[in-house]
Specification:
Pfam families: DUF1428. It comes from Alloalcanivorax balearicus MACL04. InterPro entries: Dimeric_a/b-barrel, DUF1428. Helix content is 33%, strand content 26%. It has a single domain, classed as Alpha-Beta Plaits. The chain is α+β, with helices and mostly antiparallel strands. It is globular and about 40 Å long.
């Protein structure tokens, strides 16, 4: 089964175009190094929760939308190899966190090993 890196972040709605431009460039780099899939999704139906929710998880503020994204790899080993190369690539390494179109402090990410695929 494949391996997945998942991401969740708050994005100011006014920055959607800038985020998509940044993501398109980043996705091309990941795919160039061997990622199978690079997907960006913008919240469309994510209600507020009473205990937890997507909006609560990123401390969503007025004027922001939740972004959920993932990158798929052939294996954990491939993910580690690809990410090592991507992080050294000047197209990614040169991205300044201070100019990102979202608040990286409220972003979360992690690697996931699929256990079921139908």
């Amino acid at each position: 089964m494949n391996y997945v890196d998942g991401f969740l972040l708050p994005l100011p709605k006014e920055n959607l175009d800038a985020y998509l431009e940044m993501s398109r460039k980043a996705g091309e780099v990941w795919k160039e190094y061997g990622a199978i899939d690079y997907v960006e999704c913008v919240a469309d139906d994510v209600p507020d929760g009473k205990v937890t929710s997507f909006p609560m998880s990123v401390k969503l503020e007025p004027g922001e939308v939740v972004v959920f994204s993932w990158i798929t790899y052939a294996s954990r080993e491939e993910r580690d190899r690809i990410n090592e190369q991507v992080m050294k690539d000047p197209r990614i390494a040169g991205m300044d966190p201070a100019t990102m179109p979202f608040d990286g402090k409220r972003m979360m990410w992690g690697g996931f090993r699929p256990v079921l695929s139908l």
